[in-house]
Amino acid sequence: MYAQHQQTKTKKLVWSGYAVFVWSIVYMFPHLYWALGGTMGGFLLKPQRLEMAHFELINWIASVFLTVAGFIGLAFIYWSKGRVSSYTWLFISWAGCSLAASHGIFGIVDRILQITGVIGVESGSFHIHEDAYVVWDLLLFEPWFLIEGILFSIVGWCFLKKARSRKIWLAACIFGIVVGLVTGMMGVRFA
């Protein structure tokens, strides 16, 4: 795959790399705010989340992960000169695509099923006034994961030049997402 990488960066690769960077960094700011002890916007979360003992630590970790994810997008543009680095960025992008997209898809479906009453929320059946966080998850947080996964798949796609490599990339991303969905249905969620 390394040999198929264009030496001159295409506009699509530059656009997709910056899209990953901007999308990740924008989502990092609320986590950084909460990591620093901020409470504004807490109504978007489960009521118990702000009271968790490790809430700030979790948001520090999320801030680091999101910053690294953003820089992965830039790495495709600026630091992909060698075979090892190219494979490294592709593997990380594949993992990011698989985890984020499967998390987003699973979360969206799960929240829709909770709102429609097919499955219950932790407190029983869904009530908008008590469980508004479910709606916020559906409209804000889960779509962010899905879009992040899509952006990681696009940057990997744009990085590759030959149609065969792109087909393999697409198949690998779909496989990773399916594995993520299956593990989600088994009760294992990675984020």
Concise account of the structure shown:
This protein is mainly α and 191 residues long.
Radius of gyration: 18 Å
End-to-end Cα distance: 30 Å
Percent range of helical residues: 55-70%
Weakly predicted, low-confidence segments: 1-7
Q: How much of the sequence is in beta strands?
A: under 5%
Please give the largest β-sheet. Answer: none
Please identify the structural class as seen in this structure.
mainly alpha
Number of helices: 5
**Shape label:** globular
Pfam family, one: DUF3995
InterPro entries: DUF3995 (IPR025058)
Organism: Paenibacillus chibensis
Protein name: DUF3995 domain-containing protein
Written account of the structure:
With 191 residues, this protein is mostly helical. The protein is built from 5 helices and no strands. The chain has helices at residues 11-35, 55-78, 83-115, 132-159, 163-185. Helix 4 runs antiparallel to helix 5. The longest helix has 33 residues, at 83-115. The radius of gyration is 18 Å and the shape is globular. The chain starts with 10 loop residues before the first helix and ends in a 6-residue tail after the last helix. Residues 1-7 have low confidence and may be disordered. Keywords: Membrane, Transmembrane, Transmembrane helix. It comes from Paenibacillus chibensis. The chain crosses the membrane at residues 12-37, 57-80, 87-109, 143-160, 167-188.
